[in-house]
Design goal:
The complex is a heterodimer of chains A (219) and B (137). By secondary structure, chain A is mainly beta. Chain A is built from 2 helices and 14 strands. The chains are: A mainly beta (219), B mainly alpha (137).
């Protein structure tokens, strides 16, 4: 012990100095949560899990993308950790509005539940929504300009991509969807009572009015 | 022999903002863990998706730099607290809040760390634990 007293390098955390940074950080966290929950601040999401469930009372597509499409749906094969292909239905929605969105992710015994847009007049808005799901169900569905049996390889603005093989680590080799891959597109769609069991979901930008993150039951 | 290794390890720990750096690394790891998505979708998304990985990755760098280059701890810890706050926007609400809180607390602890200490009163979680152990004895 005596040798440590003489050592000038040994130090410790000064709790008063600790508060100098933590207090403003705490205020900033509170501000960020407030801005997100009031729907002012858009956040971005990228989740994958074996038990990711997404439900919404309704989903309506918004403005179409450069291809003039509001919703794409086609089959892809994602690759599991050991390289096994897992068939998925990939839904790509450039712009969407969701009422009463609920997402739950299970990590071990803990289930984390995120809800937002519970009030019908302040829904969740999403852009660049991509969901890879093993099951999709909806109680009502209305499609506008639906085109079933669409060649997904013909789009260029933007082109659709799909995984071709598992790369190193989390990386996945991708390529543009080849010509002759069939799927369906719609210029617009409204789905009610949506329920998806997904392996992955990303959203470039999400506004989440009435945000609530809590531990609890799955959606 | 084991005693000497333990003492060297304890000295290494106490001579840098070890616990602050560790909490930053745990927070960044938790955020990355919530994002284990196949990267192809991220490439699909472009810059916003990449940022979701970039911010926690730089947090990891800050955590290690706090350990191996503690002289610049003020800069690294302030950078780490700003990155932690940024993950709220870019990375699943900061790994569903948990990683964000770990990162912010860890960075604040690293900021509060200073060399020079009264004997027998090491700081951080280690000092706190040894004080509890001392009381139990």
């Amino acid at each position: 012990m005596a040798d440590e007293v003489a050592d000038p390098m040994v130090g410790r955390t000064r709790w008063r100095r600790f508060l100098i940074v933590l207090a403003p950080a705490y205020a900033a966290i509170a501000g960020l949560i407030f801005l997100a929950a009031s729907g002012t601040l858009a956040v971005s999401f990228a989740v994958s899990g074996t038990a990711l469930t997404i439900t919404a009372d309704s989903l309506s597509t918004g403005a179409a993308d450069g291809n003039g499409v509001g919703l794409y749906q086609f089959g892809v094969a994602d690759f599991a950790g050991n390289g096994t292909p897992v068939p998925q239905v990939e839904t790509v929605i450039p712009n969407a509005t969701l009422v009463n969105l609920c997402q739950s992710v299970s990590v071990g015994p803990v289930t984390l539940r995120t809800t937002a847009g519970t009030a019908a007049n302040s829904p969740v808005t999403a852009s660049g929504l991509v969901v890879d799901a093993t099951s999709i169900s909806a109680s009502t569905a209305t499609f506008k300009g639906i085109n079933i049996g669409q060649d997904m390889g013909q789009f260029a603005n933007p082109a659709l991509t799909e995984p071709t093989a598992r790369g190193t680590g989390p990386n996945v080799n991708t390529a543009n969807v080849p010509a002759g891959t069939f799927g369906q597109t719609a210029t617009g769609a409204t789905l009610g009572g949506l329920r998806q069991v997904a392996n992955g979901q990303t959203a470039a930008s999400l506004t989440l009015p009435g945000l609530n993150v809590s531990f609890g039951a799955a959606c | 022999m084991i005693g000497r290794i333990w003492r060297a390890w304890r000295h290494w720990r106490r001579s840098r903002p070890f616990w602050g750096g560790l909490l930053i690394l745990l927070g960044a790891g938790e955020i990355l863990f919530t994002e284990l998505i196949p990267l192809r979708v991220i490439l699909h998304l472009g810059p916003e998706g990449i940022a979701g990985y970039l911010l926690p990755a730089i947090m990891v760098v800050c955590g290690f730099l706090l350990w191996f280059h503690p002289e610049q701890r003020i800069f690294y810890s302030i950078l780490a607290v700003l990155l932690s706050l940024g993950t709220w926007i870019t990375s699943n609400l900061g790994g569903f809040v948990l990683g964000l809180v770990l990162g912010a607390v860890g960075a604040s602890m690293a900021f509060g760390w200073q060399p020079g200490v009264p004997a027998g009163r090491p700081g951080g979680i280690g000092g706190w634990m040894s004080r509890i152990r001392g009381r139990a004895r």
